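The pair is set out directly below:
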Amino acid sequence: MAEGRGEQEFTRFVQRTRPALRRIAYALSDDWHEADDLVQRTLMTIFLRWPELERRDRMAPYARRVMTRLLISDRRSSRWTREVLFGVPPEAAAAHDPYVPVSQRMMLRDALARLGPRQRATIFLRFWEDRSVEETARVLGNESSTVRSQTVRALNTLRDALDASST
């Protein structure tokens, strides 16, 4: 019975901390695939030691420390691995215009400048910070219906501005 409760505690810990661990892992590795692997290995390491860990209320800092040490260990060991490449390297990808992302960002910035401050704040909170309608309403001091209508109007304004600048 104690094992089942320990696994349930671990499951709740994973559900609560996995998104934050994934963001931290990406910040450390700058690669989403490596970040996912790093989070998985971190959670496996913690799971194996879960029964003997005492301060379960302070597991998030411990998980970050485990993750950092795993990454450092990986990076150290990769310097000593010997890989031998065989065959012909793959074809190079077609060259793309490096200024396209810059011009797209500039068009988006100009389109965002056309929004009023409340609409811009609504778009930022809803889509950049990935907040719900209710959270956004609470932050802005509005009703949920106001947030929804400002979101619709702001997105329509952005679409119109981006359509006009792309043609």
